[in-house]
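REVIEWER CHECKLIST
Item 1: Sequence provided? yes
Item 2: Single chain? yes
Item 3: Sequence as submitted:
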Amino acid sequence: MDYTFKSQNKEATLKLGQSLGHILQGGDILCLEGDLGAGKTALAQGIAVGLGLTAAVTSPTFTFIQEYATSLQDNLRLVHMDLYRLQHPEEVEVIGVEDAFQTDTICLIEWPKIAEDYLPEDRLDIHIQGSGEDTRIFTFRFQEESWQERLDRLFSILKDDH
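Item 4: Structure as written out by the authors:
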């Protein structure tokens, strides 16, 4: 089952991310796909707020991986990856993408396609259509049923907020 959400502006994307951050738990992996300027980093910033982060979250385009401690629970961390600049799938292993797949970590991966052979099935894929001034359409897909109840809860909250 797919879930979709329309965002009219950056503020709505940040709010979506913040609400999403409230339902995440250690071990979650989110793959963010979309064109340049689609809102992947804005969504990540909202998720960080939802997780209680006060640090500024930026896309780790040149560092590949950025790690943040959350304030929601002890030892829970957010690892934000941007794989846009990787050229070969083998580089995924070299920079240690799989090392972030831990039970005390929420992992956000921008541009995940190059890493698809390394990604577990239990993840949330978020595809974002639109860029620039266009409305964004967020499509949420998952294979493992562990996401069903949480996304039902998320979309119930989002519906109530509209």
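Item 5: Key structural point noted by reviewer: The chain has one domain: 7-138+153-161.
Item 6: Recommendation: ____
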